[in-house]
Specification:
By secondary structure, this protein is an all-beta fold. Helix content is about 0%, strand content about 50%. It contains no helices and 11 strands. The protein has strands at about 5, 10-15, 20-25, 35-40, 45-50, 60, 70-75, 80-85, 90-100, 115, 120-125. The strands form 2 sheets. Strands 2, 4, 5, 6, 9, 10 and 11 form a 7-stranded mixed sheet that branches. Strand 5 (about 45-50) and strand 6 (about 60) form a beta hairpin.
């Protein structure tokens, strides 16, 4: 199973930027889609952005479109989430996830479709 390790969370003021990174290890050749999800206290884990591992297809939550960018570096087995214009409502634990079962699905966007998860990294945006 693919293992994932996140880094890059922290405390930032509203309007600031952070970049999260997630490095995968194990059978990375099997990855179909990787994604970032977030979970605020008392709320469900929601998708932030996902990206196909072998093409340019991406998906973004409406709340982050135009502010966040997901990208990947296959040579480093790493996916990034560049977060700009951060808002207090972006405060959450951010999780990296991977779907690594072969599929003809164009891209996965729901947490239930991802079988590998990182430990999470806290992002706090102060007003």
């Amino acid at each position: 199973q693919v293992q994932l390790v996140e880094s890059g969370g922290g405390l930032v003021q509203a309007g600031g930027s952070l970049r999260l990174a997630c490095t995968a290890s194990g059978p990375t050749y099997s990855i179909h889609t990787m994604g970032w999800f977030r979970q605020a206290p008392g709320k469900e884990r929601d998708v932030v952005a996902t990206i196909r591992w072998t093409n340019t297809r991406t998906h973004y939550a409406d709340s982050v479109k135009g502010r966040f960018t997901i990208s990947r570096d296959n040579a480093k087995n790493t996916v990034y989430l560049q977060m700009n214009s951060l808002k207090p409502e972006d405060t959450a634990v951010y999780y990296c996830a991977a779907h690594s079962v072969y599929s003809t699905t164009l891209i996965y966007t729901q947490a239930a479709d991802f079988g590998s998860w990182g430990q999470g990294t806290q992002v706090t945006v102060s007003s």
